[in-house]
């Protein structure tokens, strides 16, 4: 069984239930456990990269949409300094999103090596 973020069985989210107004936004958002299940399936089918992406998505699923978009914006080239990326990574790590924190730290190292960090003096 797959479960929506609301805890509702995703099989019960039908076009009719939408038409009747019985479906809320959390009924169509994926639950982290569902993403973890999908990651397990991906691993079983020799796709570790997809599994890692799904596990990072599971970590992000509990964040507000605006925060996910802010993370996306911060990761764009020349948008953040190394310090800002480290602060973002630490904030995520403190909330249990350790895979995403590691990804941001890796991005910061890559951006530094390639000259893609924001200029801290501007």
End-to-end distance: 51 Å
Biggest pleated-sheet summary: none
Low-confidence stretches: none
The CATH H-level superfamily of the domain at 64-122 is: Propanediol/glycerol dehydratase, small subunit
State the name of the first-level CATH class of the domain at 64-122: Mainly Alpha
Described by the principal axes of the CA atoms, the overall outline is elongated
What is the mean predicted local confidence, pLDDT?
93
CATH architecture of the domain at 64-122: Orthogonal Bundle
Number of DSSP helical runs: 6
Secondary structure class reads mainly alpha
Strand content: under 5%
Could you tell me the radius of gyration in angstroms? 18 Å
Percent range of helical residues: 55-70%
Total DSSP E strands: 0
Q: What is the element string, with H for helices and E for strands?
A: HHHHHH
What order do the helices and strands come in, and which of them pair?
Blueprint: H1 15-19, H2 32-44, H3 48-60, H4 65-74, H5 82-94, H6 98-114
Helix pairs in contact: 2-3, 5-6
What's this, in brief?
The protein is an all-alpha fold and 122 residues long. It contains six helices and no strands.
Question: Would you give an account of this structure?
Answer:
There is one protein chain. With 122 residues, the chain is an all-alpha fold. The protein has a domain at 64-122: Orthogonal Bundle (Hypothetical Protein Yqey, Chain: A, domain1). 58% of the residues lie in helices and 0% in strands. It contains six helices and no strands. The chain has helices at residues 15-19, 32-44, 48-60, 65-74, 82-94, 98-114. Helix 2 (32-44) packs antiparallel against helix 3 and helix 5 (82-94) runs antiparallel to helix 6 (98-114). The longest helix has 17 residues, at 98-114. The protein is elongated, with a radius of gyration of 18 Å. The protein starts with 14 loop residues before the first helix and ends in an 8-residue tail after the last helix. 16% of the residues are buried. The model has no long low-confidence stretch (mean pLDDT 93).
């Amino acid at each position: 069984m797959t479960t929506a973020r609301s805890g509702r069985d995703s099989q019960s989210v039908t076009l009719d239930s939408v038409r009747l107004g019985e479906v809320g936004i959390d009924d169509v958002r994926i639950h982290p456990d569902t993403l973890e299940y999908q990651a397990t399936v991906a691993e079983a089918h020799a796709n570790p990269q997809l599994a890692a992406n799904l596990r990072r998505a599971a970590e992000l699923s509990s964040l507000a949409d605006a925060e996910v978009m802010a993370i996306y914006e911060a990761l764009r080239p020349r948008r953040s300094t190394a310090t800002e990326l480290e602060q973002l990574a630490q904030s995520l790590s403190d909330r249990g999103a350790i895979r995403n924190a590691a990804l941001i730290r890796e991005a910061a190292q890559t951006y530094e090596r390639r000259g893609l960090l924001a200029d801290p003096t501007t």
